[in-house]
Fold this sequence. Notes:
Chain A contains 9 helices and 17 strands.
Amino acid sequence: MVDLSVDLGRGRRLPNPLMTASGCAANGKELHRFFDVADLGAFVTKSVMADPRSGRGTPRMAETPSGMLNSIGLQGPGIGAFVEEDLPWLKSVGARVLPSIAGSSSREYAQVAATLRDSSAFDSVVGVEVNISCPNVANRGLVFACDPMASADVIGLVREQLPREIPVFAKLSPDVTDITTIASACVEAGADGLTMINTLLGMVIDTDRLRPQLGGVTGGLSGPGIRPVAVRAIWQVRQAMFEGRLPTVPIIGVGGVRTGRDALELVAAGASAIQVGTAVFNDPSAPVRVLRELCELLSAKGFERFSDAVAVAHGR
Amino acid sequence: MSERSLRARVTQEVAEVIATRRVGAYQHITLVAPGVAELARPGQFVALAVGGETSGTLLRRSFSIHKVSPSGTYGGTVEIVVSAVGVGTRWIVERAPHDTIDVVGPLGKAFPLPTAPVACVLVGGGYGSAPLFWLAGELRERGCHVEMVLGAASEDKLFGVVEARRSSDGVTVTTDDGSAGQRGWVSDPLPEIIDRTKAGVVYGCGPMGMLESITRVAEAHGAVAQVAVEESMACGVGVCMTCVMPVVGSDGRTRMVRSCVEGPVFRGDRVRWDAFDGGHARVPDDAVGAPKVGGH
């Protein structure tokens, strides 16, 4: 039996490396009808902001080759409803929770983190993912993860709000010239780990009506079609860690994982945990299936510990 | 949304196609899916995966359930009606008997049934009529007088006219081009039928414009409209947030709600029809969490 446990930093260990991806799993109840969400290493919730948010108009999605484009616009109930309803429910079923938080200013991120910290079910939280890279905002200039200073500002303020034992993960965008400089800025500002990658900015034209297909015009591209971009981003940042250009911290890999083989690809590039996102729309029980397939694959390849496979492709 | 609807039971099964036949412009497909057949109620839908485990077409296609037979010769079966309009639906209609399709269901909320035996009018546009025959049967079992109105652009796009005559106490057919029944829209004969039968409920299934017009007619003639919407969905199970539409809640406030879990059946007078325009649904300014100036 392969030892699947993973170290998230700050002494946090998870029983296995599989997670949902933010925005692809809602807040747990829906997928709990298909599998026990407590079987996951962690459940990553949809990015939550300070106030309730309607999101964008429709159409909100377009299918693409091996993937999709979405333009949801961070629809959500606000952090108040999240800590009163969603988080206690996840705790009640025994889930380990990695809440994803968002904001339109660094102050809003800090406010959301503080409300989370002070909530009654906070003991179910194993870490916080800071979504600094959602492409579905009106002003692309607001994508913090395109700017090292803005990224560092958000991460620093969130880190201050959370107890020492809670690791903070910065979720990065691949839509940058050099992802290692953003990663480095986040880690220096106090991030305990990195989640890579968020969606890529894309666009689809409806050729019947000859107009943008999405109500929001542009959207985030996800699915198996972007997996090579995720592998590349994880590889580059892990390489920079090997070369001492930034401290070595855990990377949570996300982007186009549909099978155990796909997960192993991200792991071999340097990911210490794996999120399954868009594949859930195709197969609602994909996260637990990927975990089972990954475990079988590691076993077949002779690995005794999952951690031995992390970044194994470097130097081969 | 109620807790009950979210915890409603659902299953995922690899279903064998046991029959598939052309009906007018559509394909009528029967699947062996005993789990779905056992649980489903009229108005609910199934979400079908396209093209197998390695398919590049990732998103499920949703179809309202035409009929279930929980204890058929082959085990429980589920029937759907498919209009092949794109890559995914073309793959589905090309399945031959004994091929398999991955099915998730039943999904969404069913049509609410009246507690008293009131008269009901069931209105279907095109193959939107698919779930209405099953619904008609359930209503008549409760002692309701049931009339149906089936409409389409042309005769080949009507679905279930013969079945409607079997399932109801009266059928009216309309086509835009007059190739069958009376020329015009389903909303044309509706006022007379509601008034004559003193209908309490109008059930509708079809395109958004049609659902809006039958909601207005029902309201004007003292009936409640229950409409099943067709929004484009990526997952069908409530996690992707793409199938939202503006709907007024019991507190009087408008929210962007998921048509896959809070619908697909809504009370017509709760839908913010004013927000729909040419394939777009905008977020009404008074919706909870609506964008401030500058947008999200």
